[in-house]
C-alpha cells in the first residue's frame, strides 16, 4: 500500500522508535526528508543521520536518536501541520516559532527547509511542515 503522506510517515516512525527507546529509526529516503533530518540535527533533537543505500533505487535514512541518561529523549513531540489534503502556508510576519517557545517549527521555503525562526530572520514564508519539541 503506498504512503500518502511521506513526511507524516517519517515523523511517525521516529515517534514510534522513541516510544520503545530504540537508538535509531529507519525511514525511506527523499530530499525533503533529508532536509528535515538536517534541521533536526542542527537543532540538537537527534544525534546524527546517515543515508543507507538499500535494495531499491530510493535508499533509506537512518536517524540516530538522542537520549538524556539513556532514558529521557531530547525529542518529546512531533506534530505534522501541513497535510496533502490541507496545505498550511505562513508569511514571515506570522511565522510560528514553535511550541510556546520550547520547540521549533520546520518550514519549507523557496530558500530551502529551515526552522521558523530562521525563516523569520531571512524574511521568507512558506509551507509549515511540522512542529518539534
Please, could you describe this protein's structure?
25% of the residues lie in helices and 33% in strands. By secondary structure, it is of the alpha+beta class. It has 2 domains: 68 residues, 2-Layer Sandwich (Ribosomal Protein S8, Chain: A, domain 1); 55 residues, Dna Ligase, domain 1 (2-Layer Sandwich), CATH 3.30.1490. A hairpin with a 7-residue loop joins strand 2 and strand 3. The model has no long low-confidence stretch (mean pLDDT 94).
Write a short abstract of this structure.
Helices cover 25% and strands 33% of the residues. By secondary structure, it is α+β, with helices and mostly antiparallel strands.
Features:
133 residues, alpha+beta, Ribosomal Protein S8, Chain: A, domain 1, Dna Ligase, domain 1, 2 domains, three-stranded antiparallel sheet, 3 helices, 25% helix, globular
Write the layout of secondary structure elements.
Elements: H1 6-19, E1 24-28, H2 31-42, E2 46-52, E3 60-65, E4 67-68, E5 72-73, E6 78-80, E7 89-90, E8 104-109, E9 112-115, H3 116-122, E10 126-132
Antiparallel strand pairs: 1-3, 2-3, 4-5, 6-10, 7-10, 8-9, 8-10
